[in-house]
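User: Structure please.
Assistant: Input sequence and predicted structure:
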Amino acid sequence: MSDGPMGVHWWCSRAIAYPALICAAATWDSDLWYALGKALGRDCRARGVHILLAPGVNIYRSPLCGRNFEYCGEDPYLASRIAVEFIRGVQGQGVSCTVKHFAVNFQEYDRHHVSSEVDERTLHEVYLPAFKAAVVEAGCGAVMTAYNPVNGVHCSQNAHLITDILKGIWGFTGVVMSDWTSTHDAIAAANAGLDLEMPTAEQMNEKNLVPALRSGILSRAVIDDKVRRLLRLALRFGWLGDVQRDSTIAVHDSSNLRTALDIARSGVVLLKNDNNLLPLNGRKLNRVAVLGPNAHPAIFSGGGSAFTRPTRTISVLDGLRELLGAEVELLHEMGPEPHPSEHSFLFHDFESDLGAGLRGEYFEGDTFTNAPIQVCLDEELNFIWGPSTPLPGSTVSQFSVRWTGVIRIARSGKYSICSRGYDNSYRIWLDGKLIVDSWNGEQHGLCKVYAELSRERAHTIKIEWSKTRYWSGMQFGVALENAPKSSVADCTSLARDADAAIVCVGFNEQSEGEGFDRPFAMDTELEHLIREVALVQPNTVVVVNAGGGVDMRSWIHAVPSLLYAFYPGQEGGRAIAEIIVGALNPSGKLPITIEMNPEDGSAFDCYHPSGGNMRVQLSDGLLVGYRHFDEHGIKPLFPFGYGLSYTQFSLENIALSADAIYENQSIDVSFDVVNTGACAGAEVAQLYIRDIESSLTRPQKELKAFAKVFLESGERRRVSLGLDRRALEYFNPALDRFVVEPGQFEVLVGYNSESIGLQAEFTVLGDSQLLNRNS
């Protein structure tokens, strides 16, 4: 096995780091999704990998989710099309995909415990379609269950999801595996349909299963079925007879590098371009200021299991240097540190009875009742142990640590007390007061509290930490809140003297990733940097790296041009530079809606659990993403499907192949796409459906087809998109199945979810209507 989908980074020190799936989704290009899968499949074969742990197809509900960058956006139809092409590409190389995380996994906050409470219709229409397409259409070899419970039952033992729907209704014959350390009950998981516990058999082992077999709680047929599925997977892909490693494929294959670049080129989205500031190639350029922490070195990925150590990286600064050459002087300044909390983990002004550092007492087990098996001096608390143990010579999988000592600081003031526990439990006392307590709820991600510390005294510190999951680590430190920071003035000085400024900001693998949610807004110093540069340089271009939307209220109106790069992979800096200088016409379209205000999003009131019950009621139901904005008349900052080009397009002459069809028939929608601008480019024509006469409430529009069309200046092309039964149906909970109701449907063809250029109507006939027409 190897993690994905940003690179096959197990069994090697480095691998090609592809653009994140959210960036690939922004291409709206099925050929590129297939090419990405094929490239990853080839990378697997070059290393002898049989199973790729990808793609992730969970639905984007909120910009806060730390793993948004690994997923395909907010729309279930778009995510389905990506999943199908990606899987076909991978599995065509003799490698099994593992579609994940099944199901309704949309947040990283306390992901092992918070239950997603969802009704059956929303489950089938929003959160399951991409999984269904992966299984039924693409024939995915494996499915990975999610960490979270759904309706109170953990996904690894959720019989409704695994047995009733996945293996029952959809007829899945492959392997169902757990996510790492997410199996909680051996018998419940086995009976629910889990076939493979990962990464080790902590629950589904001989000790737990054999007595259940003997007592009849678990049947032999259940175990036999799991064995058959594992063998069937191996037989299907030919693993039992052939060597998986293909020595004819280079480990760092040049054609795969080109695929990584092509996806980045097509996935970067131009969101704003006042007065046609971009491209810069039409302007007299002597100096360009390339500013911000994301300008160099390259920011190419979010963090966690998807992060891939790349074979190389090309930053925005690198890309501009290559394209502009010596004729244009590039002025570079990193500016403010975007995530100062990370540096706090290097803090080492501790003292204890053992010397300069904290007293570390290491225990076997998850309590501190027995004597420690190791006592040592830890000068810093900056540990990432991963799956291993810090105890020399020990093979224990469960351990805990107590650190004690004092903090001495050189300057009195307000300090941030920063910690990160990597899905583990811990608590912190400062001067005898409990200031952080995640003992009964795992704390991953960055935790920050504030305290006044004095240089006149030693502040006592005690930390108790316990491993609760496969991956472990503990980081702790303090940082002065009003300490001198890298001056924004250095950046504004360069910007003032330049002909244009490129400001590269956003998040990175430390601040956005698996296991924790992130804030909507970027660091305040980064927002300040954008405003100050725009104030002195009218030709300012902002480039944002993020896995989802960010808060732009404080600066969006001050900047003329904005490029959304998501996480564009190791070749991304070149693609961004090509767009900036005009060597490439941008064609990316948002796979998400970016809200103006945080409260505008559908999940704002139903994202985190409330009342301490560890349950999130998905009260937004079907109205996720653009559907929510349509229903409530809220204008987003940038709508779903939005993206600008250096040319212009027109949609014209819509026609339907019929004015009425029966529910099992298909209908073709054809129209012209015209490049009315001065240069070649690509437009994504998006087809939405509105059910005018539904007996149950449906969204005002639902994406059901699209086409990305590349046209020369002045070129016109006729496009035809088919709509079948699946495009018209909805899930009727009373009937427990999908239905198509007779009545009027409206076809909406647009440039994005807000801007509709063409409309037409047709009728779906019932039995009696069809008989009358035939007679």
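The first strand starts at residue 2 and ends at 3.
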